[in-house]
Amino acid sequence: MSAAPGPVADLRRSLRLMVITDRVMASQRGWLVVVESALEAGATAVQLRDKRAASAELLAMAEHLTPLARRHSALFLVNDRFDIALAAGAHGVHLGDDDLPVAEVRRVVPRDFIIGRSADTEEAAGDAEAAGANYLGVGSVFGTETKKEVIGEVIGTEQLARVARAVSIPVVGIGGVDASNAASVVQAGAVGIAVVSAIMKADDPGTMTRELLGAMEL
């Protein structure tokens, strides 16, 4: 059976620019307004991340995003919670080091369910691919202030390139990525970038989205 049209069928294209949500950074504008502006300007994926939200609240947030992502033919992922992703009709989940193992999630989700995994070494990347991950989020490439556990940790584009060469699945660069360095992420072998503050804190999320996309055109 051929793959269904849309984000799942063309995963590499869908991973070109992933917007990761942050309610605090979005401030009074509202995170959903920022995400919608980014999607309208061409963002290809959105990842719902909110560590503080209770399950019911996170599900409600995901249910707002599902039709919005569908309307813009964008990939929609939920951070950590594959159960929320399934309940809301999202395309998949992104798993970190403290989440369930990729293999265990793969065992219970539908065949076309997308699983992303964070990895910053060749070994971790290979293990994730072997376990059934569809793509990798690799970083922090340039440093980040959005994840306390990795503040100060920078792998750089050379390590990003080594990880990208170690696997056959798509790699996305994350951590401190903005319009000034997005091109170097793609040059290192990533299919795209994942950003939080670059868009969530932007005065004009739509304009910043277009700048990021333009910066990656090699």
Brief descriptors of the model:
16% strand; alpha/beta; globular; 218 residues; TIM Barrel; eight-stranded parallel β-barrel; 42% helix; 8 strands
What do these coordinates show?
The chain has helices at 11-14, 23-26, 31-40, 55-71, 82-88, 102-108, 122-131, 156-166, 182-187, 197-200, 205-215; strands at 17-20, 45-48, 75-79, 92-95, 114-118, 135-138, 171-174, 192-195. It has an eight-stranded parallel β-barrel with strand order 1-2-3-4-5-6-7-8, surrounded by seven helices. 42% of the residues lie in helices and 16% in strands. Helix 3 (31-40) packs across helix 11 (205-215). The protein is of the alpha/beta class and 218 residues long. It has one domain (11-203): Aldolase class I (TIM Barrel), CATH 3.20.20.70.
The named CATH superfamily: Aldolase class I
Molecular shape: globular
Here the CATH topology equals TIM Barrel
* CATH architecture assignment: Alpha-Beta Barrel
User: In terms of per-residue confidence, which ranges show pLDDT below 50 for 5 or more consecutive residues?
Assistant: 1-5
Please give the alpha-carbon distance between the first and last residues: 35 Å
Classify the oligomer. Answer: single chain
Radius of gyration: 16 Å
**How many domains would you count in the coordinates?**
1
Question: What share of residues are in beta strands?
Answer: 15-25%
| Whole-number mean pLDDT | 94
Query: In what order do the strands lie side by side in the largest sheet?
Result: 1-2-3-4-5-6-7-8
Q: Number of helical segments?
A: 11
Element-level helix/strand string: HEHHEHEHEHEHEHEHEHH
Helical content stands at 40-55%
What profile does the largest beta sheet have? 8 strands, parallel, barrel
- Structure summary, number of beta strands: 8
Main structural class:
alpha/beta
